[in-house]
């Protein structure tokens, strides 16, 4: 094949999407940091599938237009940093193919180079040994190969860039010491290689099929929106895992939201098999408020907008915050926050979720608080899409930082003074968190066993032990210094106020500090600690 037409391009990306979905769990397991979060394989799969599901039904014979349509839907569906970077690679690819009905090898090679460059520009501080490196080395090698072999075919080109992507991925542990310590390759790079493999297999007349028994329907007309409230039975009151259920639903669903509030779980999905979802939900307890409605994914919305009047009210300022846990949500709402996007660990909102809210808010200036480093790029991508208001994404990497930013906001100040004050509040807070490890690993020479309670500060695991309070106290001893005077203890659904009081008593007695206790009701993290 000397030129790539639109039909073959669609076949390639469908094969790649299937391959990525089949490998999703394998890629997730490569994540180095042993916390329950929005895993790389899941985020990349949801991002890529969001684009491919729409594109395979797109009626256009121009590869340039089709690539642009794919890119647009990936940009809106991008989740997590890995998903955003992937969407930027395909944005650059689409820009390189713009205006073309078919693409020859040289045009394709140049487009992939452009994709790698656009992805680097999207990241404030690019890190080598990641998906960025794999995409760049693969693309640069591919262009060099085409220059040396101008008569090569599309098949030859993909065969060689697949091999180069694999070699680049194999080198990632040499570039990132933490990968070498754990003995894995980069998960984002693996996800990108998986996409290239899926494309290559299509060109070899071996298109990848989904391994699951029931494939997700690609037709937008036949989908269903399913929402159900589950009252957990006694077993799952103790052992329910949002992460495990989300992964299971990911095999046959899109737009997955799983929110736990005490002993109740709300499940919201888009699927072609609603009965299977209801049966799955019933395994965990008694069902209430079952809703099954047909939907068109072209007009679906990730969230219900219950307070449209609040969104329509014209204001000088508005604040959007990302969080989960009813108590944390109520705290933010008491601190000038106009809209909450449910999300955080395990639930990284898509770019589209931010765009939908931004388009509905009637405000001149909007501050976004991601409150998680893995949500920052998606929020910034939304900022670039919306152009009818001033949008500012603040660098809040934790809930305590978001709270401090809100406390330092004033409607009386101008924009720059608010940015300065909010950033000052962000920088004044030290955040600690306690959660359980999802796997056995070694991190910075610390041996961690699955289900150990870990004390974490700024993505550094400082302690791992079987005892939750021991982990919490050791974490505090590492964080608190003589300049600190106040602590906010946010306790989650896995613990209680009495245990949180023990933590406050420990701090007050040992460090002579004052503090407050907040019932955050968040999942997965028994304690989130803000120290100032």
Fold and architecture overview:
The protein is an alpha+beta fold. The protein folds into 4 domains: 3-203, Alpha Horseshoe (Serine Threonine Protein Phosphatase 5, Tetratricopeptide repeat); 221-295, Alpha-Beta Plaits (2-Layer Sandwich), CATH 3.30.70; 308-427, Rossmann fold (3-Layer(aba) Sandwich), CATH 3.40.50; 431-531, Hypothetical Protein Tm841, Chain: A,domain 3, CATH 3.30.1180. Helix content is 48%, strand content 20%. It is built from 21 helices and 18 strands. It has helices spanning 6-22, 24-28, 40-55, 63-77, 80-97, 105-122, 131-148, 154-175, 177-182, 187-203, 234-239, 242-249, 274-282, 308-312, 326-333, 351-360, 376-385, 399-407, 415-427, 468-479, 497-511; strands at 3-4, 103-104, 223-232, 253-261, 264-271, 285-295, 315-323, 339-342, 363-369, 390-393, 430-436, 441-443, 446-448, 453-457, 460-465, 486-491, 514-519, 527-531. The chain has a 6-stranded mixed β-sheet, with helices on both faces. A hairpin with a 2-residue loop joins β12 (441-443) and β13. The longest helix has 22 residues, at 154-175. The radius of gyration is 24 Å and the shape is globular.
Q: What fold name stands as the CATH topology of the largest domain?
A: Serine Threonine Protein Phosphatase 5, Tetratricopeptide repeat
Domain unit count:
4
CATH top level assignment of the largest domain: Mainly Alpha
At the fourth level of CATH, the homologous superfamily of the largest domain is DhaL domain
Give the tally of β-strands: 18
> Per CATH, which architecture of the largest domain?
Alpha Horseshoe
The coarse silhouette is globular
Query: Biggest β-sheet: count, sense, barrel?
Result: 6 strands, mixed
- The helix tally amounts to 21
Placed side by side, the strands forming the largest sheet appear as 15-14-11-18-16-17
Percent of sequence in beta strands: 15-25%
Radius of gyration: 24 Å
Q: Roughly what is the average pLDDT, rounded to an integer?
A: 88
């Amino acid at each position: 094949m000397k030129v790539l037409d639109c039909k073959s391009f669609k076949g390639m990306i469908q094969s790649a999407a299937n391959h990525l979905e089949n490998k999703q769990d394998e890629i997730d397991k490569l994540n180095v940091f042993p916390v329950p979060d929005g895993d790389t394989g899941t985020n990349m799969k949801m991002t890529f599938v969001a684009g491919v599901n729409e594109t395979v039904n797109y009626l256009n014979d121009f590869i340039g237009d089709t690539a642009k349509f794919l890119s647009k839907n990936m940009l809106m569906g991008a989740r997590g940093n890995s998903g955003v970077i992937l969407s930027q690679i395909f944005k650059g690819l689409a820009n390189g193919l713009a205006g073309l009905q078919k693409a020859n090898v040289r045009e394709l090679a140049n487009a992939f180079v452009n994709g790698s460059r656009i992805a680097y520009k999207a990241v404030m501080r690019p890190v080598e040994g990641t998906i960025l490196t794999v995409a760049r080395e693969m693309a640069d090698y591919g262009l060099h190969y085409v220059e040396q072999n101008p008569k090569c075919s599309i098949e030859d080109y993909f065969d060689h860039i697949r091999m180069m992507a694999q070699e680049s991925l194999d080198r990632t542990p040499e570039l990132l010491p933490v990968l070498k310590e754990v003995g894995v390759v980069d998960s984002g790079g693996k996800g990108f290689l998986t996409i290239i493999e899926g494309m290559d297999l299509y060109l070899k007349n071996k298109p990848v099929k989904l391994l699951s028994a029931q494939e997700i329907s690609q037709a937008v007309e036949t989908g269903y929106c399913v929402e159900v409230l589950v009252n957990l039975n006694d077993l799952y009151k103790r052992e329910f895992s949002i992460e495990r259920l989300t992964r299971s639903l990911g095999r046959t669903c899109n737009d997955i939201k799983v929110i736990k509030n005490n002993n109740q779980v709300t499940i919201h999905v888009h699927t072609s098999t609603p009965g299977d979802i209801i049966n799955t939900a019933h395994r965990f307890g008694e069902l209430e408020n079952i809703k099954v409605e047909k939907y068109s994914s072209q007009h679906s919305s990730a969230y219900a907008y219950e307070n449209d009047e609040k969104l329509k009210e014209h204001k000088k300022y508005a604040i959007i915050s990302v969080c989960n846990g009813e108590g944390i949500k109520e705290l933010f709402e008491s601190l000038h926050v106009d809209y909450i996007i449910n999300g955080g660990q395990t639930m990284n909102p898509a770019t589209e979720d931010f765009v939908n809210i931004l388009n509905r808010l009637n405000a001149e200036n909007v501050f976004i608080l991601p409150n998680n480093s893995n949500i920052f790029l998606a929020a910034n991508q939304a900022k670039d899409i919306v152009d009818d208001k001033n949008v500012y994404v603040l660098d809040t990497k934790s809930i305590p930082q978001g709270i401090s930013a809100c406390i330092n906001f004033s409607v009386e100040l101008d924009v720059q003074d608010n940015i300065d004050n909010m950033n000052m509040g962000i920088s004044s807070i030290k955040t600690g968190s306690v959660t359980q490890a999802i796997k056995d690993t070694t991190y910075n020479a610390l041996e961690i066993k699955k289900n150990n309670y870990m004390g974490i500060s700024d993505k550094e695991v400082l302690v791992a032990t079987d005892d939750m309070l021991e982990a919490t106290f050791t974490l505090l001893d590492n964080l608190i210094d003589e300049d600190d005077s106040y602590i906010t203890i946010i306790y989650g659904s896995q613990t209680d106020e009495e245990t949180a009081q023990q933590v406050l008593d420990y701090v007050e007695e040992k460090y002579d500090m004052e503090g407050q206790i907040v019932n955050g009701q968040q999942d997965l993290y028994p304690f989130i600690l803000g120290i100032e």
